[in-house]
Amino acid sequence: MGKCVYVDNSNVWIEGKYHSAVAKGMVADVYEAHDNKICDMPWAYDFGKLLDIVCCGDISDIKRAVLYGSRPTDNDSLWNAAKKAGFEVFTPTRNAKNKEKRVDTGFDKEVLKDLYTGVIEPDDEIILVVGDSDHYPVAEAIIEEGKRYTLAFWDNASELMKADSENFISLNSHIKDLECK
């Protein structure tokens, strides 16, 4: 049995900035943070720590770890850190208006490709680190194939994604552990 971990970096990082603002007392709750666009701008997370947390401390049996996120300008060191932590990194280029494109669909493609080509075997554990319901069709496909998934994200993750997961790992209690020092 191996672990197949799929991370939407943009989801984790952007939401983490809002949750860090709450943890640091800048705002009362994450909903107020969103409404007023209050976030902890310098907050960044450590890829290795994320992998350790979502794998419940056992990274010895990771079969595949995928990190999807759009490439910010001139920040290859970020992606090198992710590779060093054990992730395969996919970074689609932003469009001409510097908007993120193809991250969600690319993430979904990797999970579905692994699901349907046998990379994910019957006893493998699937861990999705995403928060929005845009990824729910992937969750449905996993369930339709007779498999289950663990969802790891901040507490404000899609209720639909949480409800159908076998296990939910809240990142909220790990906000300080995840932060890059």
Structure description:
This protein is an alpha/beta fold and 181 residues long. It has a single domain (3-9, 44-178), classed as 5'-nuclease (Rossmann fold). 40% of the residues lie in helices and 17% in strands. It contains 8 helices and 6 strands. It has helices at residues 9-23, 30-36, 47-54, 76-84, 103-117, 136-144, 159-164, 175-178; strands spanning 3-8, 62-68, 88-90, 125-129, 149-153, 167-170. The protein has a 6-stranded parallel β-sheet, sandwiched between helices. α7 (159-164) links the parallel β5 and β6. The radius of gyration is 16 Å and the shape is globular. GO terms for molecular function: RNA nuclease activity. InterPro entries: NYN. Pfam families: NYN. Residues 37-171 form the NYN domain. This is NYN domain-containing protein.
Summarize the structure.
The protein has 181 residues and is an alpha/beta fold. Helices cover 40% and strands 17% of the residues. The chain has one domain: 5'-nuclease (Rossmann fold).
Write the layout of secondary structure elements.
Blueprint: E1 3-8, H1 9-23, H2 30-36, H3 47-54, E2 62-68, H4 76-84, E3 88-90, H5 103-117, E4 125-129, H6 136-144, E5 149-153, H7 159-164, E6 167-170, H8 175-178
Parallel strand pairs: 1-2, 1-4, 2-3, 4-5, 5-6
